[in-house]
Amino acid sequence: MQQTIVEDIIKKVMDQMGETPAEKAAASCDAAIPVELSGRHVHLCEEDIKELFGGPLTHVKELSQPGQYLCKERVRLIGPSGVIDNVAVLGPARPKSQVELSLTDARILGIKAPVRQSGDVAGTPGVVLTSGSGLAGLEEGVIVAARHIHMSPGDAARFGVSDNQKVDVHMDGSRPAVFKDVIVRVNKDFRLAMHIDFDEANSCGLGKNARGRIVGVTQEA
Amino acid sequence: MQQTIVEDIIKKVMDQMGETPAEKAAASCDAAIPVELSGRHVHLCEEDIKELFGGPLTHVKELSQPGQYLCKERVRLIGPSGVIDNVAVLGPARPKSQVELSLTDARILGIKAPVRQSGDVAGTPGVVLTSGSGLAGLEEGVIVAARHIHMSPGDAARFGVSDNQKVDVHMDGSRPAVFKDVIVRVNKDFRLAMHIDFDEANSCGLGKNARGRIVGVTQEA
C-alpha cells in the first residue's frame, strides 16, 4: 500500500496549515480523557420512588458528576424474557424515570432498547421495576445511553469542541478502536469524563484507568 | 475546526496520487465485508470428545467457513465464579481443545481470558467442561478470539491486503466505530467474512446483514 506516502503528505500539508485546536490537544499529553464505565442503573421520579420504597432515597456515595450519587436502594428489572437483580439506583430524583442498560442487558430482558441521550425517552420501551416491597411499571424509559463526554467550558475550549458536537474518540484498549458519534456535553458543573457501557469497554479491551483521545469530528452540533 | 479544509486538501493530494488498492476497493460498493457474530463456542481434541461424549461428534449443519460445522453436542463451562450452559461445540476435532468466549462471558466465569488468535493458546487459562455424562478439565485454552477477516487470495488482492496484516475496519452500525488491529487471514479455502464477538457487535449497534469496510492499515504483517 501507499499508505505511508499518503500519511507523509498529509502530515506535511497539515504542518503547513497549522494544527486545529482538537489536533493540538490530541498531540499533547493532556488530551487524555478519563473513561468511566457506566453499569446498568436507574434514575427514578418522585412518584416511582414512593411506589417502590415508600420514603426518600438513601445517599451512599457521590459519583464523578457533581450532585449525582449512588443510593442504598436497589431494584429488580423484569422484562418479557428475563430478569436482572440488584440494579443500582442513582439520585437525585428526576422528572421522569429512566433505565440505562447495555445492549447485552436489554437482550437478557427481551427489550429492544434504542441508543438515546439521557433524558430523551419519548417512545422508548417500558419495563417493570420491583424493590421487594413495591412495584413500579414504566410505560417508557428504557434506553442504551449514547456514549458521551462530560466536560466544562474550559475543557471544551482546550479540545476545540462544542456542546452537542459528535466526535471520534480513540480508545486505548488492548484491542484499540475509534468510537464515532461520541456526544460532547458541555456544562460548567461537569467534570471531564467519558462515559461508555460495558459492551463498549469490552469491545476494545479497556483496562483500569483507561483513557480516550478525541481524534476527529463525526458531526457538527 | 479546520477539519473540512484539511479533508479537501487530503482529497486533492490523493486524487493526484491515485488511489491505493484498498482505497479503490473501499470506494467501490463491493468493498463491503459481511460480518458474522461468533457466539461462545468450543473446539475439542479427540481425547476431550471421548471423555465428554464417549463417541464422535454429531454433525448438525455447515458453518460459513468450508469444513467447519456445528455439532448436536453441547457443553457446560464451569469457572471459579460462574457457569455457562448450553455452549456450542464446533467440529471437526482439533489437535488442542479451545474455548472461545466474549469478555462478558469470561467475567461471568471469573476467568481472565486474553485476546488471542485461534490456535494460539499457550499460557492461557483453563476451564472445566461437562456434558451431562462426562467431564474434561482443560489446563489451558480459554481465549477471547481476536477479531479477524477470512478471505481468499483473490479477495486479498482486491482489497490490497495480505495475510496477517492488521487493518482498520469501519463498522456500519447504529453507533458506528472503527475497529483497529483486525487480523487478515488469507487462505484459498476461506470465504469472505469478518468474525467479531457479541461485545464488539453491541458496541457499534450492529444489526442483521451488517457490513464492515477496510479503511486503513493498523500494522503490516
Plain-language structure description:
Chains A, B: InterPro entries: PTAC. Chains A, B: It holds the Pfam family PTAC. Chains A, B: Its EC number is 2.3.1.222. Chains A, B: One of its GO terms (cellular component) is bacterial microcompartment. 2 copies of one chain form a homodimer. The first copy, chain A, is an alpha/beta fold and 221 residues long. Chain A folds into 2 domains: 20-37 and 147-219, Barwin-like endoglucanases; 41-145, no CATH class. Chain A is built from 6 helices and 15 strands. Chain A has helices spanning 3-17, 21-27, 46-53, 103-109, 153-159, 198-203; strands at 33-38, 41-43, 59-62, 69-78, 83-91, 98-100, 115-116, 127-130, 135-138, 142-145, 148-151, 166-171, 177-186, 193-197, 211-219. In chain A, strands 2, 3, 4, 5, 6, 7, 8, 9 and 10 form a 9-stranded mixed beta sheet that branches. In chain A, strands 1-14-11-13-12-15 form a 6-stranded mixed beta barrel. The radius of gyration of chain A is 20 Å and the shape is globular.
